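pls design
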């Protein structure tokens, strides 16, 4: 059985190197190496409420362990969450960079549309007509 030390990626534009390290169990049939990106099964919350989800993480260490040593009392770290899948590092990093570029272009387009909309509103704004009193018949 393998245990991997990973650091969770917290967004497409944030660097991963300064995060805490977490341990996950890795299925024996999944071939992973240091530097690989993986999809990990995570749990957030407290004893009354928890939310299970997936997170992307980068592997910083891989170690082979015997199942018996894993469940013994000598092992202080007992990972119970799993690596679900390995992601292609090249494609993942490229996708993050492309997503940042697309998001920047989209935000820029939205800002231009907002500016044009404000200009149109100013241009089309009609001056107020003075109120006139209607002639009352006495």
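designed seq:
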């Amino acid at each position: 059985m393998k245990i991997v030390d990973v650091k969770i990626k917290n967004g497409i534009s944030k660097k991963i190197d300064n995060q805490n390290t977490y341990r996950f169990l890795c299925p024996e049939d999944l071939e992973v190496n240091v530097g690989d990106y993986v999809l990990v099964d995570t749990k957030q919350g407290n004893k009354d409420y928890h939310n299970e989800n997936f997170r992307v993480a980068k592997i910083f260490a891989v170690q082979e362990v015997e199942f018996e040593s894993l469940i013994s009392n000598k092992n202080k770290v007992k990972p119970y969450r799993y690596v679900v899948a390995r992601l292609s590092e090249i494609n993942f990093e490229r996708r993050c960079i492309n997503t940042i570029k697309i998001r920047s272009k989209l935000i820029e387009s939205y800002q231009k549309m907002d500016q044009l909309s404000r200009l149109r509103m100013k241009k089309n704004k009609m001056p107020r007509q003075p109120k006139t009193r209607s002639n009352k018949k006495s």
